[in-house]
Amino acid sequence: MATLEIHDLHVSVEAENGPREILKGVDLTIKQGETHAVMGPNGSGKSTLAYSLAGHPKYTVTGGTVTLDGEDVLEMSVDERARAGVFLAMQYPVEVPGVSVSNFLRTSATAVRGEAPKLRTWVKEVKSAMEQLQMDPAFAERNVNEGFSGGEKKRHEILQLELLKPKIAILDETDSGLDVDALRIVSEGVNRVRETGEVGTLLITHYTRILRYIKPDFVHVFANGRIVESGGAELADQLENEGYDKYVKGGASA
Amino acid sequence: MAEAQNIPAGSTTAGSIAVAAESTVATRMSAPPSFDVADFPVPHGREEEWRFTPLARLRGLHDGTAVASGEGVKVEVEAPEGVTVETVGRDDERLGKAGTPVDRVAAQAYSSFEKAGVITVAKEAVLTEPIRISVHGQGGVAFGHQVIELGAFAEAVVVLDHTGDAVLAANVDYVLGDGAKLTVVSVQDWDENAVHVAQHNALVGRDASFKSVVVTFGGDVVRIHPRVRYAAPGGEAELFGLYFTDAGQHQEHRLLVDHNTPHCKSNVAYKGALQGQDAHAVWIGDVLIQAAAEGTDTYELNRNLVLTDGARVDSVPNLEIETGEIAGAGHASATGRFDDEQLFYLMARGIPEAEARRLVVRGFFAELVQQIGLPDVQERLLAKIEAELEASV
Q1: Which residue of B has its CA nearest to A146?
Q2: Which of A81, A114, B331, B362 is the most exposed place for a label (fewest CB within 10 A)?
Q3: ABC transporter domain location, by residue (chain A) (predicted)?
């Protein structure tokens, strides 16, 4: 069973007046089949956690370990992490002009699976995944994220999640900017992947709204660069009622 | 997230649309067009037409110190039935009909060549095979002139291939009779030390179609100046270009479409990728719509993709309109970086860095390559682009 273990992770970014520490000792273990929601106020470092796990060059790991089934993730390049089974659905997916969605998906699936998917089954696979996400087939011929609406970008991220079948899926504010219909469609996509029982999900969000569609097994409150409280789904209800105030004020001791 | 830096440091992407009573495209040049090199002062580098060009690397083509040597270039022509291939003296009346040299090096070429090539396609001849002109540099200095003339309603494809090492100043005239269709692919696939300066003049007859594809990969300095004029209404010109500028290379494409006649069309699209320290691409796109040229339809576009730090692009579209009675006129220029965020996105989907780069560059050129319409040329270009990318990784 795949397990992602994050231990005492410290991460800095280069700021104008030298490096600034954003993650200040994160501990978290995600097992295949589990769903963890990480919730926290803006600026608490949630997205930094997501991008650090994926290996974005902007973030420097200054301490701690991240392993996937015992393998050192931090030693891997960005593409190696993806091929090892770590997937990041981005909050702000990047436009790649000149590269069509269909070409991108196939190149990516080929890289992650280690061989080119058979054309006939691949076409069917993409078509049915797109139908379930209510995406127009014409979408496949557009350039990656170019001119996509906010909702289209998120559906495209979840389409990739469904096709690439990672061991660990990190969803960075996938709910942001979505109306209720789009949120439902996207959540259903995530749930289809979760129901296989083969993915560990790290759901990063500011709001509890998405948790009505995607039920977490664990909820973690993130404040000031670390997890300050963990609990079950009931913790989300508490946050819904009380907000983050007590964590923001009380958690600034580091 | 870091913001995409769209304009690399030191680049210009200036452009202008001028509505003027008198053309500044002509007056911006330091001397009026002439066949005689003596009519042009030696440029010092601050002239409008020379300000982007590294004169010191022209090996004397601009100041008269370059002298033709025995082993300049070897020219071979392969032509199908129905084509006349001749080598003629300087006094042949068919030379210089499509256009007059507009700068000192073009005039130097015209003043210095000893023999010119004339290729004629008889009227109504429709060629099924391309005419291939191979210009192979032998390491010396050469001056040349080539005329390609199509009779009325003739159709031809010409592939003009430049390889090897040379210091070459040579002009090409394309003369299209009424209703003729000519596609010319000029490939600059020089060795790394070559210097090549050329003015390409096209004179497009009534209802004729001219398609020029300029492809520049090699050389130390390459400066190509395609120019189009229309002899009568109804003509169409498509000018496509593709360049891949590597470290230290200077590749300059200057274009002029002179809409001097009513109801003609032009479409210009040049795309370039740059990589490496001091790779320098220059694109000047001048389109002039004269007062008489009512019903003109024109569009020009330049796109540059900067793959690494240290490269520089100067892209200057100029559209000058002297009549409001036109069908359409527009231009676009953009220089973008293949930035770290794009790379991260593709790599985060398991795609290795080299492949991510290939994917983006191939995508960038694909649409333009498809418009060339010659499968063997397209394949060769794609293979060449792959090779350029291999060399960079």
Answers
A1: B342
A2: A114
A3: 4-249
Q: Name the residue ranges covered by the structural domains of chain B.
A: 16-354
Per-residue confidence in pLDDT tens, chain A, 254 aa: 899 999 999 999 998 899 999 999 999 999 999 999 999 998 899 999 999 999 999 999 999 999 999 999 999 999 999 999 999 999 999 999 889 999 999 999 999 999 999 999 999 999 999 999 999 999 999 999 999 999 999 999 999 999 999 999 999 999 998 999 999 999 999 999 999 999 999 999 999 999 999 999 999 999 999 999 999 999 999 998 888 888 886 544 43
Helix (H) and strand (E) counts in chain B: 5, 17
Tell me how close the Cα of A239 comes to any Cα of chain B, in angstroms: 28
Q: Which domains does chain A have, with CATH numbers?
A: 3-93+169-250 (3.40.50.300)
A98 Cβ under 8 Å from any chain B Cβ? yes
Spatial separation of the C-alpha atoms in residues A21 and A59, rounded to whole Å:
10
Question: How many angstroms separate the CA of residue B241 from the nearest CA in chain A?
Answer: 17
CB contacts of A94 in chain B (<8 Å) are 341-342, 344-345
Torsions phi, psi for A145 (to 5 deg): 60, 0
Residue type, A13: V
Whether this model's ipTM surpasses 0.85 comes out as yes
Type of residue found at B123:
K
Q: Which residues contact A219 (CB under 8 A, 6 or more apart)?
A: A36, A37, A39, A211, A230, A231, A232, A233, A234, A235, A236, A239
Contact status of A55 with chain B (Cβ, < 8 Å): yes
CA–CA separation, B48 vs B38, rounded Å?
Answer: 19
Query: Using the beta-carbon criterion (under 8 Å), do A103 and B355 form an inter-chain contact?
Result: no
Look at B348 and A54 and tell me if their CB atoms are within 8 Å. yes
CA distance B358 to chain A (A): 10
Under an 8 A CB cutoff, do B363 and A54 touch?
Answer: no
Give pLDDT, residue B336: 85
* A49 torsion bin: left (phi>0), alpha (psi -120 to 50), beta (else): alpha
For B6, other C-beta atoms within 10 Å of its C-beta total 13
Q: Which residues of B touch A88 (CB under 8 A)?
A: 348
Geometric angle at alpha carbon A40, from A39 and A42, rounded to 5°: 135
